[in-house]
Design a protein that fits this description.
The protein has about 750 residues and is of the alpha/beta class. It contains 24 helices and 21 strands. In the N-terminal section; belongs to the glycosyltransferase 51 family. In the C-terminal section; belongs to the transpeptidase family.
Length: about 750
């Protein structure tokens, strides 16, 4: 293309997506992730278009954009920025219609670049034909002067005609010299959405650059096919790629109107243009389009061509192909569309933004009814059907799927994006996750109910997160990262680093068991002052009850969550060994290497701590597992993700851990969990000032972690310990279904 395009983004995936969007429209572009290199390229290349993505661009040197605008006024800048920053760029001179906010919308990019391209690069075909009148060749003839003159005229016309035909033939030959091979249709792989599924096969989410899902031709109802034929190409089944009569009629009508009011392209020509040709409007492209169309018609059956077209056509609202369009506009599959809906979709490809029912319902309704009238005139429907269908309303809103597990979807999206890069949005993967839909719904209800209960008790705006893990495989079965994903996408299950409080204590007791202690071994619970490691203020741990219990068993010390006894035990076994134990069961966060860490001053995520408790449950350490298998668009398996547990605790110590963690429930701080009427194990946790409340526990199937707190680290409320704020939510989730 004649318009050079430069793209800037410091985020590799976003930059690659922008590049692929631009190149899919037939344009060439170069990507930069360094502002200095971009500035050098701008000075050297003098681009006509600069696509600048400010997402994740932490530099304050946004004046570079304003500098480009000032020094290179002929260059158009397309900007992606946070909504709050856009007014500042507009004030600096960037055009409002060139400023976009997240998410990156391929429609915005493609349409804006095409618009700029045709303004800046009006490439009109200019053929200069020269006619030589070789009258001198006839000089000196003895014929009648009138006859001589007539011969000269005839000869001149013949020569001019020959030259013109030669030029036209040469032009056609030149235009067709680089035609693509239509056989590429058989290997053509367009962008296709990647789909996430739950563990039992239910569709969970869709990742896409172009929303597309292929549908076989035989699954498309006849009335849907008829709608497109009636609107786009009435003689589809009789012509051979080009409808000459329609082309001539369109040419005449356009001449009369002084504008392009009617198109003459067949469905085959439109397919050729979509797949093989650039958007430039030149005579050369039209010649290629006609030639490719005839090749396609000679190689493929009509039904195959129509299937290619219906799966490739763009319908607006980021929907590519008939299946995605049916989902986007009506929330249905293609084979569920009625006649009015089929006519609405058939009306869109000519100008999706113009006839969008979401932008101009009246114009969309008129266009839809015109499509119905075309179906009536061609005998595809009767008058009664036409009358009934024309009264149906057009869609009022885009059908966007609301994900059941948005925090989990975003978590796995980041993992898959790291794994596949921008192919995640274009390759059509089928990712079968570990999520159990039934458990996920229980988790969401438990969080909503728990948050509401806290609000009723005078503690509004408290956040809750919950995660459930299969103790046998390490698979994440449910994840809730907050009370309202629409208000905050911050995942408190995987991203929030919070002090663990007493939920860290079992790691101290496991360390003791690994060094010969048993649940019946004793430890002294008394007031002891410890010197500071750095020579600062001395420290004396106190219990929550503000009393000391003397010599107690390890079982009692943990069940009553005694701080003094736990610190004494950690001091005896050594904090270096406690940290080593934490590492052995999968804790990777930084652990404060001194005695206060024994009672939970270090910070972890709920995900990390819940996986540690999963190791307590059966002795195996697992890495987070979010998917079971991945297939390609043809459902051919490309990866099988089997559980990979590593034995981190020997069975004898697993039994000891179950003993003491069960005592927490039967006789300690979590006695309310006895209401479940089955063996469960776990530990509460509370941090200073009631800023964090935890409960992490398990049964014979699941490990479940619950955290309650505020994002600003302010107190939850008076007496809001783990047993009062987090444990009720955990119990609610763990209850057997009625």
């Amino acid at each position: 293309m004649a318009v050079p395009i430069l793209v800037f983004s410091v985020n590799k995936t976003r930059g690659s997506l922008l590049l692929r969007i631009i190149e899919s429209g037939g344009f060439k572009a170069k990507l930069f992730d360094n502002s200095h290199e971009l500035e050098y390229a701008v000075r050297r290349r003098r681009p006509s278009i600069i696509v600048f993505d400010t997402k994740h661009y932490q530099s304050r040197e946004f004046h570079i954009i304003r500098g480009f605008h000032t020094r290179f006024p002929d260059a158009e800048i397309i900007l992606f920025a946070e909504p709050a920053e856009i007014p500042g760029f507009i004030a600096a001179g960037i055009k409002k219609d060139c400023c976009f906010s997240d998410p990156i919308n391929p429609d915005d990019v493609s349409l804006k670049i095409r618009e700029i391209y045709f303004i800046k690069n009006k490439a009109f075909l200019r053929i200069k034909t020269y006619f030589l009148f070789v009258c001198s060749l006839f000089a000196g003839t003895r014929d009648n002067p009138y006859i001589v003159f007539m011969k000269k005229i005839i000869m001149a016309v013949a020569i001019a005609l020959a030259v013109s035909l030669g030029i036209a033939g040469g032009f056609v030959f030149y235009s067709m010299s680089d035609l693509p091979k239509v056989q590429l249709l058989e290997t053509y792989i367009p962008f296709e959405s990647t789909f996430l599924y739950t563990a039992d096969g239910a569709e969970l989410a869709e990742f896409y650059l172009e929303r597309r899902k292929f549908v076989s031709f035989y699954k498309i109802p006849k009335h849907v096919k008829n709608a497109f034929i009636a609107v786009e190409d009435a003689h589809f089944y009789t012509h051979h790629g080009i409808d000459f009569f329609r082309t001539v009629a369109a040419f005449i009508n356009n001449i009369r109107a002084g504008d392009t009011v009617q198109g003459g392209s067949t469905i085959t020509q439109q397919l050729a243009k979509m797949l093989f040709l650039t958007p430039e409007k030149t005579l050369s492209r039209k010649v290629k389009e006609a030639a490719i169309s005839m090749q396609i018609e000679g190689r493929y059956k009509k039904d195959e061509i129509l299937a290619f077209y219906l799966n490739q056509a763009y319908f607006g609202a980021r929907a590519y192909g008939i299946e995605a369009a049916a989902q986007t506009y009506f929330g249905k599959k293609t084979d569920d569309l009625n006649i009015a809906e089929a006519a609405m979709l058939a009306a869109l490809p000519k100008a999706p933004s113009v006839y969008s029912p979401f932008k101009d319902p009246k114009k969309a309704l008129a266009r839809r009814n015109l499509a119905l009238k075309s179906m009536l005139e061609r005998g595809f429907i009767d008058s009664d059907t036409y009358a009934a269908s024309s009264k149906e309303p057009v869609p009022a809103y885009v059908y966007r799927k609301k994900y059941t597990a948005p925090y989990f979807v975003e978590y796995i999206r980041n993992i898959m994006e790291h794994k596949f890069g921008d192919r995640l949005y274009t390759a059509g993967f089928r990712i079968y996750t570990t999520l159990d839909l039934k458990l996920q719904k229980k988790a969401e209800r438990a969080v909503v109910n728990g948050s509401a209960a806290l609000a009723r008790a005078g503690m509004p705006a408290v956040e809750v997160s919950l995660i459930a893990i299969d103790i046998h495989t390490g698979a994440i079965r449910a994840m809730v990262g907050g009370t309202n994903y629409q208000k905050s996408q911050f995942n408190r299950a995987t991203q929030a680093m919070r002090q663990t409080g007493s939920t860290f204590k079992p790691i101290v007791y496991l360390t003791a068991f690994k060094n010969g202690y048993t649940p019946d071994s004793t430890v002294e619970d008394k007031e002891v002052t410890y010197s500071s490691y750095d020579g600062g203020q001395e420290w004396t741990p106190h219990n929550y009850s503000r009393r000391f219990y003397g010599r107690v068993t390890l079982r009692t010390a943990l069940s009553k969550s005694l701080n003094a006894a736990t610190v004494s035990l950690a001091n005896t076994v050594g904090m270096d060994k406690v940290i080593a134990t934490a590492r052995s069961i999968g804790v990777t966060s930084n652990i404060y290497p001194h005695l206060p860490a024994a009672i939970g001053v270090s910070e972890m995520t709920l995900l990390e701590l819940t996986y540690a408790y999963t190791t307590f449950a059966n002795g195996k350490r697992f890495d987070p597992m979010v998917y079971e298998k991945i297939t390609d668009r043809y459902n051919i398996k490309i990866e099988d993700n089997a559980p990979k547990g590593i034995q981190a605790i020997d069975p004898a110590n697993v039994a000891k851990m179950r003993d003491v963690l069960n005592a927490v429930v039967t006789e300690g701080t979590s006695i309310a969990a006895k209401s479940l009427n089955r063996p469960v194990y776990g530990k509460t946790g509370t941090t200073d000032g009631y800023k964090d409340a935890w409960f992490i526990g398990f049964d014979d199937e699941l490990t479940v972690g619950v955290w309650v707190g505020r994002d600003n680290n302010r107190p939850i409320g008076d007496e809001m310990s783990g047993s009062h704020a987090a444990l009720p939510i955990w119990i609610n989730f763990m209850k057997d279904d009625e």
